[in-house]
Structures are given as C-alpha cells and as structure tokens.
Specification:
Elements (H helix, E strand, L loop, with lengths): L1 E2 L1 E4 L15 H14 L3 E3 L7 H13 L4 E7 L2 H11 L6 E7 L2 H8 L3 H18 L2 E7 L6 H14 L3 E6 L6 H14 L7 E6 L6 H10 L4 E4 L13 H10 L6 E2 L7 H12 L20 H9 L27 H10 L6 H17 L5 H13 L2
Helix pairs in contact: 1-2, 1-10, 2-3, 3-5, 5-6, 7-8, 11-12, 13-14
The structure holds 3-methyl-2-oxobutanoic acid and zinc ion.
Length: about 375
C-alpha cells in the first residue's frame, strides 16, 4: 500500500501557538509519545531560536530512535549549523530549511529579488547537504507563490541535493481543489520530481487544513505535516489525529498507510493538551470530549440497537474508553433504561416510567443529569411501594 509519511510539527509550529511554552522535559515527554504514536518525522524545534530550543532538540535527537528527528533552519549557514549540532547524534540527521517564495514575502519581508532568493536557497541546500543525508526544503508561503517560479526554485534545490520539497499553505488561504492542483502541477513539471518526496503543510485559517492536506496527498504529496490537536500559529495547523483517522476510516477511497498507531491518539492528545495548557474544544473531531457522545433520544436508541447507526469511528480505535450515553433533556427512555440497568437497578416498567418522568423534569432544569442525581431518582422508585 502507498505509504504517506506523517511529519509532526507539534513541538515547532505547534509551540508557535500564542501562550504555549514547553520546557525541555515536557518536550521530551511529548517526543517519546510521538515516537510511540508512530510518526515518521518529529520536528522538535528551531535550534537557532533560543538555547532552550537547541537543548530540547538535542535531547530529543539523543532519545528518540524510531522516528527521524529534525529542526527548523532559515536558509542561512548559522541556522543550519545549529540544527547540525543539535541532531548530529541522531541515526538519520535531518534538517528542514526554508525561505519565502511568494511575491509579497520576497518584496516586503526579505527585500530580495526572486533570483537572489533562488541563489540563497541553493547555497543553503548545498551547505546542508555537506552534513545531512536528509534535507527538506520549504518554499514558505508556497501556495501564494508564482507556479512557474516554484518550478524554477524547486528544480534548483533538487539539483543542489534536497530530498524533500515542502510547499506550505503558510497563511491557510488555499482550497482543497487549488492546493491539490498545485501538487499535481509541480509533480508533472519539476525536473527530478520522481527522486524526491513532496510534502504538504497546511494552516487552518479558513478551516480547510485537513481537507487541503488530503487533497495534496491525492495529487502526489508523499508526506503530510501536521500537529496534535491542530495546534499552531493563529488558527493552527492540520490536525494529525483527524488526518490519520480519516485516512483509516475512508481507506476505501484513500488506500494509503500512515504508520500511525491509532490507539495511541487519545493519550497523545491528552498529554499535549495537559502540557501545553491548551484546552481541546469539546466538539473537536476524534479527540474532543463530545466526539463520541450521543445525547438525543433518537440517536441513543439507534446506537443501543446497533452502534454503527450513528457511530462511524469506534472510540476504542483511538484509545478512548467506553463513552456512556449522555443523559440530558434530549435523551430517551431506551438510554435511561440502559443506564439504570448498568447501574444495577432492576425496576418494573411502571417504576421505570415514573423514574423517567422525574428524570425528564430534572433534565429540563439542569444541563446534565449526574450519576448522583440518577441514583437518587432510581432509589426513590426502588423503595416506593
Ligand atoms: O507555515 C509555514 O510556512 C512554515 C514553514 C516554516 C514550513 O511553518
Ligand atoms: Zn507552518
């Protein structure tokens, strides 16, 4: 089956979320869990950005054995040297170097001509290649770059030794159709494209990061860059857990293999949330508190009869324990009876109906009826004559 590499950047792009700051011990704990999860590449940080980041990348490169460890570097020698010093202990030293390629970034941010940018990119990749076997080159703001210019710079960096070409949608502007078409165009028009990996890196400003990543994959991307819980700059990056589960559940239309151990997803998500202090929105797909919770009577009745009436992902698949049916004002008699029986109450139909009426009255007043409330209601009926 076609292999899609998962490049996790929780510890680099994810840490760029406002308010997140992980220390070395926390980063190592997350990196070990990412290794257990089975990601192909861990982007552990940006070593030139601070001594703390350098140390974290270095410690992770020493600790992690089953995932490739990389660090980010601008297309300058000193940044590439910093990554080398941090990851040279790793079995497969990898560097991720980048420069912006869109007209707006080249003119206003870099103040360089397109030719000067190509010259700098080529020099950086050649320099990196003297040390590293694996060199990823990113065209920052790639999606808003001129397509013909992308072909030119990519051809040159491939000649200089790049092994992976990443074309990010840095500002989350692309639609799935456009982003997919760009990958198809680059695959078809870049010289030497067959000898390198193409990588997708999507931001979620318009809520399309996961869809865009999958569209890129369908059009020739071999690697997807993403983060746990979709953490990242502004609205975040493509969420790893959503991509991995979507590709698994819809294997009928996406016949690919990611190497992700799905049952480690919940644990990884919880760990990242706890250590970053970033709360997961309750209705977040796959890992949100409500991702497998059914509240309405019709849905509850359905899942009690056959889980798959309303459940396309089994909670156990991602390492989630049993999720009890939520008892609230939309719940029905079937869920109520099921919970009463699970709690050990055996009531006649009459008593159960009476308890259900009491429960409905309470549910109208409270957002969620607790286990203690249920015990009170059911016990009252059990002891009544
Ligand atoms: O979004 C982006 O362009 C990046 C690059 C550094 C790859 O994070
Ligand atoms: Zn990014």
């Amino acid at each position: 089956m076609r292999k899609i590499d998962i490049f996790d950047t929780t510890l680099r792009d994810g840490e760029q979320s406002p308010g997140i700051n992980l220390n070395t011990a926390e980063k190592i704990e997350i990196a070990k869990q990412l290794e257990r999860l089975g990601v192909t590449v861990i982007e552990a940080g940006f070593p030139a950005s601070s001594p703390g980041d350098f140390d974290a990348v270095h410690q992770i490169a020493k600790t992690v054995k089953n995932s490739i460890v990389t660090g980010l570097a601008r297309a300058v020698k000193s940044d590439i040297d910093a990554v080398w010093e941090a990851v040279k202990v790793a079995e497969q030293p990898h560097v991720h170097t980048f420069i912006a390629t869109s007209p707006i970034h080249m003119e206003y941010k870099l103040k360089k001509t397109p030719d000067q940018v190509i010259e700098q990119a080529v020099a950086a990749v050649k320099y990196a290649k003297e040390k590293f076997s694996l060199v990823e080159f990113s065209c920052e703001d790639g999606f808003r770059s001129d397509k013909e210019y992308l072909v030119r710079i990519i051809n040159e960096v491939i000649k200089a030794g790049a092994t992976t070409i990443n074309v990010p949608d840095t500002v989350g502007y692309a639609s799935p159709q456009e982003y997919g078409a760009l990958f198809r165009f680059l695959r078809e028009n870049c010289t030497g494209a067959d000898n390198v990996k193409f990588s997708a890196h999507c931001h979620n400003d318009l809520g399309m990061a996961v869809a865009n990543s999958i569209a890129a994959m369908e059009n020739g991307a071999d690697q997807i860059e993403c983060t746990i819980n979709g953490l990242g700059e502004r609205a975040g990056n493509a969420a790893l857990e959503e991509i991995a589960v979507a590709l698994h559940i819809r294997n009928d239309i996406y016949p690919v293999e990611t190497g992700i151990t799905l049952k480690e997803i919940k644990r990884t998500s919880q760990l990242v949330s706890r250590l970053t202090g970033s709360v997961i929105q309750p209705n977040k797909a796959v890992v949100g508190k409500n991702a497998f919770a059914h509240e309405s009577g019709i849905h509850q009745d359905g899942v009690l009869k056959h889980k798959e009436t309303y459940e396309i992902i089994s909670p156990a698949l991602v390492g989630e324990g049993d999720v009890p049916l939520v008892l609230g004002k939309h719940s029905g008699r079937a869920a109520f009876r099921d919970r009463a029986e699970t709690m050990g109450f055996e009531l006649s139909d009459d008593k159960l109906n009476k308890a259900f009426e009491d429960f409905k009255k309470l549910a109208d007043r409270k957002k969620e009826v607790t286990e203690e409330d249920l015990v009170t209601i059911l016990t009252e009926q059990q002891i009544s004559i």
